[in-house]
Amino acid sequence: MLHVVYTVADLDAGIISDWHEARGLLEIRVARSATPRQFTQSLNRTLDAVLASAHWYQMWRGEVVSIASPASPLRVRFQLSDFTPAPLVEIRERKGLVAVHVSPVATADEFVHAINPALEELLAGGQWFQHWEGEIVTMDSPDAALV
């Protein structure tokens, strides 16, 4: 089974977000004190680093999409929502792109509380897999212990 889990943490000074990957798990930590503008910008850099490691892939209408796909390289983009009032988190997915719109007034805690169930729903769609040490891990794979 795949898990993408966001947590709020007290990170070292100057660090707004970081990540850790294991079999079936991607954990992303967000600094508790970060503003929405700070954490959306930092998460864009963090997810670029995650995808550059080439362990996560999207299946889009039978096509495997990765960061190296020439026509539509896989990317995740966080941006502040233009809506007022805005939902805490809104996720839109298309081939090669996951767009995450974040309320400009969301605290890091509120963001994490909203994004985790939204990501569970996204992953439940079965369009994602992880290549982990030679194994293809999908939502149907046996679960590994969460770190």
Task: Write structural notes for this entry.
The chain has helices at 36-52, 108-124, and strands spanning 3-9, 17-22, 25-31, 56-60, 63-65, 75-80, 89-94, 97-102, 128-132, 135-137. The chain is of the alpha+beta class and 147 residues long. The longest helix is centred in the first third of the chain and has 17 residues, at 36-52. The mean pLDDT is 94. The strands form three sheets. Strands 5-4-9-10 form a four-stranded antiparallel beta sheet, with no helix packed on it. Strands 1-3-2 form a three-stranded mixed beta sheet. A three-stranded mixed beta sheet has the order 6-8-7. Helices cover 23% and strands 37% of the residues.
Number of strands: 10
Question: What is the rounded distance between the termini?
Answer: 14 Å
Low-confidence stretches: none
Mean pLDDT: 94
Strand content: 35-45%
**Reading side by side through the largest sheet, how are the strands ordered?**
5-4-9-10
Topology (elements, then pairings):
Layout: E1 3-9, E2 17-22, E3 25-31, H1 36-52, E4 56-60, E5 63-65, E6 75-80, E7 89-94, E8 97-102, H2 108-124, E9 128-132, E10 135-137
Parallel strand pairs: 1-3, 6-8
Antiparallel strand pairs: 2-3, 4-5, 4-9, 7-8, 9-10
Structure, briefly:
With 147 residues, the chain is of the alpha+beta class.
Keywords, please?
147 residues, alpha+beta, four-stranded antiparallel sheet, three-stranded mixed sheet, globular
